[in-house]
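Here is one chain, start to finish.
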Amino acid sequence: MLTIEKKSVKVGKFVNTEHVDTVIRNYKQERWVHNSERLGKEDSLSVWHSIEELEELLAKAKEHGGDGIRFYFAAYPKDYVQPLYAGRQTIVMVATKQKETEAGLANKDIYINTGNSSEILAFNNGNICPPFCKPKGNDSSDIGITIIDKGQEGVIVI
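Its structure:
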């Protein structure tokens, strides 16, 4: 009997609250504040998708031989059909499959033959926050606040 060993492609890990608070705070201070100033409105801080949507993407990826999902940082065009999204950042999730190349292992984006052409297997258009955020309150699941010192322009609390 021939046994084929499947190599694990795991690269991430679960992290704790301190890690999440630190990387989000760094993002807000180093990127978000500048993006928001350039846009003239608050840029998005997060993107939400339902578990059902994520399971659908994962199932479709597996159906086409996928073994991973790449999250691309992206931004909607300034003339996007949903005006509240226009110019704001998002993530685009793209199904991938690990392949052996001359340079070593690579996670290649999956394209599906649609008959007349090939289309990338990708997912986007989640609820971005802002503008679609849950109401602020005493919810213990909120990520902590960040205070950004803008010098002579004052401070921002986010």
